[in-house]
Design brief:
alpha/beta, two-stranded parallel sheet, 17 helices, elongated
Length: 413
């Protein structure tokens, strides 16, 4: 082996390792890189490992805060959020949903001021930059208007302004607190808990009453599926919550994906068939379906080698195993029926917001938008994009998501 080839191989391996390490961070499972034999990348790896040390330190306190902030409910609380962006309102509603509170959303300062004359809220969140009446003006109307019912209500400003001294300026105006955008779930829930009246804070979420039989959890039901290595899937996902989301999306998208593989096989569209089984290899691995993933890899290799005998011999088994697993998983998750139609404008807004958030690696907000979209019936023009999008989001495939959404936008022009 020549030295030149050896150096090229080391560089290629280093790039691949770095890519995997970045993906691990996005999945919430940061890990260090081996500095030995990294060649020209050794300094990069050292700097990356220092970054991982900082992330891991931050994650310790982050998880503690998230556990505390989500360990309560507030079903009797009345929360008002004001923002001219419908996407931001949607994200807020989803982030606050675990509390069971009544969340009212308004899209302008003027509507907020009027509503505050008619109803008493327990806490108010208001965006700073809004047309006509901004958040600061809205705040002063609420606090100073003689007929306002919310002069003593805590009001928190929502803003993307994270410059040094910004918080102090908002506090000087009289705001109770400041919450940066994009909103993080643990920060929002912690702040709501801090400012709600104590009598509205209820016991820990999910605790069964005395004598009440606890229902088997989704993760326990999935662990009963013998063909799944749930621990392996959890390791890829980084958390139980994300693993359940991946498993649910695997079950939901499987019928159409299996039908597509079958059609491509029957029409001998081997190139497209190979691409689809490659995707199945990855998604099956993410849920811990090792045997299915390995079989999909065999079919991918057969497709690349144009080995028709192998494709014809094992595709039926691949599809049968895929559909059987999807059926088992679909029984774990509730099937949503009678979904409402979503407008083209709402889809366009969601796509724009998703592209902005994915580009900024804000996958918490991406999950919120995807959760909201799942409550609607997708139009035929967007349905295939939506199916692919769910898989890519589950895999945190940033570049693939941006490419997919760009193609969709181009198709709409």
């Amino acid at each position: 082996m020549s030295m030149e080839y050896s150096n090229e191989k080391t560089e290629k391996n280093s790039v691949e390792l770095l890519g995997e390490a970045v993906k691990n961070i996005l999945c919430g499972t940061p890990s260090k890189l081996p500095v030995e034999d990294a060649g020209a990348y050794s300094k990069v790896f050292l700097a990356f490992n220092s970054f991982v040390d900082e992330i891991q330190s931050a994650n310790i306190s982050l998880k503690a805060e998230e556990t505390d902030s989500a360990s309560y409910s507030a079903p009797d609380a009345n929360i008002l959020v004001v923002d001219d962006s419908s996407i931001n309102l949607m994200i807020f509603e989803d982030l606050a949903a675990p509390l069971g509170s009544k969340v009212e959303s308004l899209d302008s300062g003027a509507k907020c001021v009027q509503s505050c004359k008619e109803k008493k809220y327990d806490i108010i969140f208001v965006d700073h930059l809004m047309p006509e009446m901004d958040g600061v003006e809205t705040f002063h109307h609420i606090k100073e208007d003689s007929d306002s019912l919310n002069k003593e209500t805590p009001i928190i400003i929502l803003t993307a302004n994270t410059d040094d001294g910004a918080k102090e300026e908002y506090m000087k105006e009289g705001f109770s607190d400041y919450l940066g955008k994009p909103m993080k779930p643990e920060k929002l829930l912690s702040m709501i808990k801090q400012y709600l009246p104590k009598e509205l804070i209820k016991a820990s979420l999910g605790e069964a009453s005395e004598g009440e039989e606890k229902e088997e959890s989704p993760i326990e039901k999935i662990k009963a599926i013998s063909v799944l290595d749930v621990d392996s899937g959890m390791e890829f996902a980084g958390s139980e919550k994300l693993y359940l989301k991946v498993a649910a999306e695997f079950a939901e998208t499987a019928p159409s994906r299996a039908d597509k593989i079958e059609t491509l096989y029957e029409t001998m569209a081997i190139r497209e068939y190979t691409i689809e089984v490659h995707a199945l290899k990855s998604s099956a691995r993410l849920v811990g379906a090792k045997d299915l993933s390995n079989l999909a890899k065999e079919m991918e290799d057969a497709g690349n080698a144009n080995d028709m005998d192998k494709i014809e011999g094992f595709t039926s088994k691949l599809l049968a195993d895929y559909r059987k697993l999807a059926q088992r998983l679909s029984e774990v998750f509730a099937v949503k029926k009678d979904l409402k139609k979503i407008s083209d404008e709402a889809i366009s807004n969601a796509v724009d917001a998703l592209m902005e958030m994915v580009d900024g690696f804000d996958f918490d907000s991406v999950d919120c938008i995807m959760d909201r979209l799942s409550q609607y019936l997708m139009p035929e023009k967007f349905s295939e994009t939506y199916i692919n999008l769910k898989t890519m989001v589950a895999e945190v495939a940033r570049d693939d998501i941006l490419e997919l959404l760009n193609k969709y936008k181009e198709s709409c022009q």
